[in-house]
Fold this protein.
Amino acid sequence: MQAWARCSPVNDLLRNAIHQLVGWGKLSAWPSENEAQAGDLPASVVVSSNPSGHFRRDLARQGYTRARRFAVLPSDTSPRWLFPLENGRCAREGLRIYAPYATAARVLRGLLSVIVAARCQGFVPHKLLVASRGSLPLEALVREVTGESETVFALSLGAPNRFRKLTIQVMRPDGGILGYIKLPLTEAATQRVRHEAEVLERLGNFAALRGHIPKVLHAAEGENGCILFQSGGPSRPGPIQFNDLHEDFLRKLRGLHRVQKPAETLVNEVAARWQKAAPLLDSRWRALGEAALLSASRELRGVMIPCGVTHGDFAPWNTRVGDGRLYAFDWESAAWDAPIAWDLFHFHVQVASLLNKNGKGVLSLGRSSGERASFMLYMLDFVCRHLEERAQLGHAGLRYRQRLLSKELSRV
């Protein structure tokens, strides 16, 4: 049983994330600081936003000896990350869960690093206390899986879409990363977490990929929906520019499983998804989509498309580098029989559209007739997936692909 202290309004997303952290249960009345001082709180876990020192001491006297303090950023009304306080080493290492590539976001992370290194907790306006009389269920799970009796968590509340997930970076008290726990924050996200667990377990059977992907430490269904606990990886961010490390990784991925799919089948699959997405788009997008499908159908008539295992969201921010090889995570969009060229397309277009790079890699794509047609189908498929996530229609990635698709059609 959990209780929230009535210290300030609680964002619904933050409430949901903390419920996933501490375990779901029947809520008791939210205790005020006066009620905490009076004693006899029935809850096993108490959560308080911006608690006073007096309140924390009252809780400790009542047996809530396991206290976890977090900085909520950017605010408790628009939460995205929860970084641990108290333990300076874990606070610094907790920032690893936030690894931005865009310039403005990197500046923000640098500022956070300075604040954390200086132990300037007074500059953190939004704090959260999670106090309990014993271990949380997730802490007990980590202890069972890893043997580590004391753990510290940093939390990421994910991107705002219908597949939103809570990612928990699990650390030892010295800041060493034990792994990452994923929990769904929406009903739709449950299947994504489950799918990623299945993909990682399947890929783990291939020796060629074991040094390139997370290992599943624990995956199960429970009161939290589906839970996935996976190992951590290297700390060095993956490169922005496509290089030999990316090529080596994709070559190994392609070598796991290969099928030839009739292009007509692929066109029909994308067309079916496009018909569902088109009503949500403006007239220009609908016209571009119809033209791209017609062009691809014509250019790919009688062609077989090489398909196989794809990551589905192959981009710099989903990679790390260590021991001279690329490490890829976030496999929730992986497929077993998608066009193998689409991971390469996606990497270059994501870099050009979201990191404002010059797009030289994009200009080198789709030079032959068949490649151009597959490239256009990839862009339509991305738009469909983007809309399925209920993300913003004005997203930079969509605007860039609209311009790119228009240019590709002008070359036909």
User: Anything to note?
Assistant: Residues 26-30 have pLDDT under 50 and may be disordered.
